[in-house]
């Protein structure tokens, strides 16, 4: 089959990879010269630990796919580093203990560790905490270099073409017309617009059950030592459905977050890039219109928490940014797939799970559409 895929982010590229892997021919168009949205404004985490029971199977499948992809395509920077969620209060410790004792703990690779054992696994964590919830199945990729690496791999098959700086304007039957008047004929068109819910997306499928979420993050200079796992703090329990239960209810009742953390709906996530710097975040903002600038208070809070856990000063912060991702608000859906015509689908809304679930979602769509 001939596919045209609109959108060069992780969802569009994962769908292209699935189609090319099944022998089809793909043209992918991206309105920017390179993907600039949530695909590159993230941690690059393949995050198994906090996924809900309903999402666990597809998450573990995606984790396996990422490892296979990383074995074939070194440029994606896959590494099975795992994660440690560091807890600092008794209420957070109760949530971690419940997760480590849950029926799915072995599948997730959960183990509750004393501080001395945490430091054996990740010697950079010399700060203050009561325990660490280790998740051996969590992993990471290099989000800023993964898409070019995946495209180069697909181009080598001779069945994939990428058009950068190309905006799809109309879809009529199986013909996609771009903003230069070029026409691309297809048996199937997949529109993966990310957080662009208006324009062509709205023309095709109207208002779909998705919302936009804004986050703030930052990047430091090289740490000067390895951070052998990703790290998170106890605030992250509040944002991942895999930790739901009476212990989390108690945490939410008995312990109010610090004002800044609560105001900006924050959690600490931190992962080391291949160049040695740390990507640190993040915040959650749901009410539009979003600000065009970034707020300094979350960065100060995240810096303080990270330094407390590391037991040292952070290197200089060299970059700060905000990003917006698309999140499905259908409680039964991991992603929103809306059919615009017999051979045209819009796919968006994985929330903060796009990098984690991208490969599995691409394969799932291919199965659903009998590719």
TrEMBL record:
InterPro entries: FAD-dep_OxRdtase, FAD-dependent_OxRdtase_HpnW, FAD/NAD-bd_sf. Pfam families: DAO. Residues 3-368 form the FAD dependent oxidoreductase domain. It comes from the Bacteria. Gene3D superfamilies: D-Amino Acid Oxidase, subunit A, domain 2, FAD/NAD(P)-binding domain. SUPFAM superfamilies: FAD/NAD(P)-binding domain. This is TIGR03364 family FAD-dependent oxidoreductase.
């Amino acid at each position: 089959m001939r596919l045209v895929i609109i959108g060069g982010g992780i969802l569009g590229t994962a769908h292209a990879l699935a189609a090319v892997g099944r022998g089809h021919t793909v043209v992918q168009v991206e309105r920017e010269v390179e993907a600039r949205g949530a695909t590159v404004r993230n941690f690059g985490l393949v995050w198994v630990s906090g996924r809900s029971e309903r999402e666990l199977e597809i998450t573990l499948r995606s984790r396996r796919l990422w490892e296979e992809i990383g074995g074939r395509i070194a440029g994606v920077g896959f590494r099975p580093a795992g994660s440690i969620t560091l807890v600092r209060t008794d209420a957070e410790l109760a949530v971690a203990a419940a997760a480590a004792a849950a029926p799915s703990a072995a599948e997730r690779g959960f183990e509750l560790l004393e501080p001395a054992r945490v430091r054996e696994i990740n010697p950079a964590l010399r700060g203050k905490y009561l325990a660490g919830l280790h998740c051996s199945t969590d992993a990471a990729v290099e989000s800023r270099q993964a898409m070019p690496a995946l495209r180069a791999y697909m181009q080598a098959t001779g069945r994939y073409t990428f058009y950068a700086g190309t905006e799809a304007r109309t879809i009529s039957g199986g013909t996609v017309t771009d903003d230069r008047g070029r026409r691309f004929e297809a048996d199937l068109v997949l529109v993966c617009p990310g957080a662009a819910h208006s324009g062509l997306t709205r023309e095709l499928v109207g208002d779909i059950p998705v919302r936009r979420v804004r986050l703030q993050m930052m990047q430091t200079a090289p740490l000067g030592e390895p951070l052998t796992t990703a790290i998170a703090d106890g605030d992250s329990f509040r944002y991942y459905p895999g930790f739901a239960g009476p212990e989390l209810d108690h945490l939410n009742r008995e312990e109010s977050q610090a004002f800044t953390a609560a105001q900006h709906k924050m959690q600490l996530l931190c992962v080391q890039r291949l160049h040695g710097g740390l990507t640190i975040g993040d915040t959650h903002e749901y009410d539009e219109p979003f600000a065009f600038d970034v707020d300094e208070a979350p960065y100060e809070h995240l810096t303080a928490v990270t330094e407390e856990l590391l037991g040292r000063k952070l290197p200089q912060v060299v970059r700060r940014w905000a990003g917006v991702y698309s999140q499905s608000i259908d409680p039964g859906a991991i992603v929103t797939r809306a059919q615009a015509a017999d051979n045209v689908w819009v796919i968006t809304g994985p929330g903060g799970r796009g990098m984690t679930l991208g490969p599995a979602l691409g394969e799932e769509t291919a199965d659903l559409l009998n590719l």
